[in-house]
Amino acid sequence: MLLRITHDTHYRYSPDVETAQHMAYLRPRDHASQQLQSFALDITPGPSLCRAQTDVFGNTRHFFAIDMAHPELHVVARSVVRTQTPAAPESRCTWEQAQTAFTYRGAQATDPAAEFTFASPFVPLQSAFADYAAPSFVPGARALDAALDLVQRMHHDFTYESRSTEISTPAQQALAQRKGVCQDFAHIAVACLRSMGLPARYVSGYLLTQPLPGQPRLVGADASHAWASVYLPDLPEGQRWVDLDPTNNRWGWGSPGADYVTVALGRDFGDVSPLRGVIQGGSRHVLSVGVTVEPVAED
């Protein structure tokens, strides 16, 4: 599948911003399930400095600075990505075996995935997450089966409700109220998996949505999406992360499906926020974000 993504971010400031420095995570990744065909980042006003870097998780981030007064900031990322669904290897390890693989032992080589077993700013390790996960992690269950059961239960138990949470809403609050948005559900899934001793990471990206029958596809009507990923140590190198989307009850190797586009991955949302920065001035602002994901016809 060939997908075109436009991510349009527009800030209006009052009073003007005098100077600004920003970091953007908007360039989709390259991996077995997707190949980036093209990417362009347009910034207005034009920055005095803009450079791309690779962060510790292998994501591409763009740092840019604006050293002139400006009443608005307009950032548009345009990407074309080819996606496919890879063949699924079979994992047989139990969740206890996967957990044991990350139990510290002196002189034992450390798996790099171990860093995703610890708490992070948006994903605390608290008993409430272990308690919720426990019914899925019965003794002797395969790790993948337990993770999929967790996702299915979350999809059943939680209500997707826009504006029921904010970016800063703690995952434990979203867990308690049983409602939120995809970011909340991804954080809860990651917290539950880590609470059972399994490496889990947060994934940001996009999902191709379909308009209602008879309705046109609306420009800017889509949104960024987020899901979780769990590590299975018995799989071949490079195929050990399985993506889990509790919002839509979807899963798959590399991504939950060919209609998903992965942009960045990290410990939680704080590592992969699409756009953040430090500004001087602009004490008040209005933010508008529009995302369009559309299939590209091929000859």
Keywords summarizing the entry:
single chain, 299 residues, alpha+beta, Immunoglobulin-like, C8orf32 fold, 2 domains, 7-stranded antiparallel β-sheet, 5-stranded antiparallel β-sheet, 6 helices, globular
Sheet of most strands: 7 strands, antiparallel
From the N-terminal CA to the C-terminal CA, the straight-line distance is 12 Å
Find the count of extended strands (DSSP E, 2+ residues). 14
Q: How many distinct domains?
A: 2
The outline comes out as globular
> What is the residue-mean pLDDT, rounded to a whole number?
92
What is the second-level CATH architecture of the largest domain? Roll
Please identify the top-level CATH class of the largest domain: Alpha Beta
Computed structural class = alpha+beta
Here the CATH topology of the largest domain equals: C8orf32 fold
